[in-house]
Amino acid sequence: MTLQYVGLNDINGSLVVLDHVKDASYDEMVELTLQDGSARSGRIVEIDGERAVIQVFEGTNTLSLKNTKTRLLGHPMELPVSMEILGRVFNGAGKPIDGLGDIYATESKDINGLPLNPVSRVYPRNYINTGISSIDALTTLIRGQKLPIFSGSGLPHNQLAVQIVKQAQIADSDQGFAVVFAAMGVTHDVSNYFRKSFEEAGIMDHVVMFLNLANDPIIERILTPRCALTAAEYLAFQHDMHVLVIYTDVTSYCEAVREFSSSKGEIPARKGYPGYLYSDLASLYERAGIAKGAKGSVTQIPILTMPNNDITHPVPDLTGYITEGQITLDPELSQLGIFPPVNVLPSLSRLMKDGIGEGYTRGDHQDLANQLFAAYAHVQDVKALTSVIGEDELSETDKKFMTFGRLFEQHFLNQGSDTNRSINETLDLGWTLLSVLPRNALDRVDDQLLDQYYDHQKAVNLFGLKEDFVIRELQEAVK
């Protein structure tokens, strides 16, 4: 027997309060029927004895305290799923908005997911190729990893997200690969940009999109990443696919959580965010991984904008504690016209060492990455010295490092939004750039690798270095 409650006790913004509710559950879905017969959806967000606080998805306009009828549905919010979700576009609450009608669902999944027993987790191995050299070579994305992108206001993180969706692939051609893309709190033009880009690239057949617009209810924004991750888990663990989940912008999501928390009268913590923001973000990020016995995997790239480029802001700060590294975008590189403007020195992929090398990428990958990091870090030291004494006073070796730094930014970091490099092309380019430097300056790789990959003349020819640079190199080689 289903009970129906007539009337409401209070209406406060998007929240309504219902008294004398029996056997209600947290996160349980409810249906509210208005006086004109129309229905709205909501979910229980707080329970105090027999008093239930309900968040109404479509807002509380025209709701009546006396005539509104409320029915508890007895289950949390669920997402209808089947293989038909591939190629479809949904709103933040999982309803189709592409004009193709409802999907034929084989089952419905709780959007909160099921907790994955740590004992049943498999350590992430192997990699996902993004076609972007700065990521693939230096902050490699490993299957089952959660690797956020830290961006800032005005930086091209949307373009980077589109490029990753268009180019991402796995080495195993016999296994399915899919991308779940979720946008939270975006404007209409950004939403249209995402849809148009994927459609023009002809990749929609393996993409699932969830779009939450800036004028949509905040409760829908809170549901969006959970719907996206539920779709990803279904494809990964029931259809053995490797799924890459990209969602932007996590900061918009956290601001929705803050607004929602404030509307409930909860005590705020740092910068007004609720004290449970850490566990809330963890409930999203920890849904990445590989389960024992499963052939598929869920990999996450959450994108967040740092207010005022402040990495100590609560959102990037808490994200850094939960995830396994970060890819940091740099405003100075962006101003130089470099795309993607990835600052490789503060960027990090903690699981990279276990998913690269022989059998995954190439045997020289780790040594090359170490040497590129060391060389580019020395470039920053030389730049600091140059600001004091001037470039003319630098040693010949330091001048070559400055040349390497410019070439590294122009040719390795800056590859444009349409260039898709294979892992071999990326690694070969890295060795060619290192060959600009004197061989004795490359102290992070052994002689065997240098004998195989170091080719100074090739670097000179490729980058069109000046003749006096070549002469000095030949003189040093003779000595």
Quick summary of this structure?
The protein contains 14 helices and 17 strands.
Question: What does this protein structure show overall?
Answer:
The C terminus is likely disordered. This protein starts with a strand and ends with a helix. An 8-stranded mixed sheet has the order 9-13-12-14-15-11-16-17, with helices on both faces. A 7-stranded antiparallel sheet has the order 1-7-4-5-6-3-2, with no helix packed on it. The protein has a two-stranded antiparallel sheet with strand order 8-10. The protein has 479 residues and is α/β, with parallel strands linked by helices. Helix content is 36%, strand content 20%. The protein is built from 14 helices and 17 strands. A hairpin with a 2-residue loop joins strand 5 and strand 6. The protein has 3 domains: 73 residues, Elongation Factor Tu (Ef-tu), domain 3; 276 residues, Rossmann fold (3-Layer(aba) Sandwich); 100 residues, Bovine Mitochondrial F1-ATPase, ATP Synthase Beta Chain, Chain D, domain3.
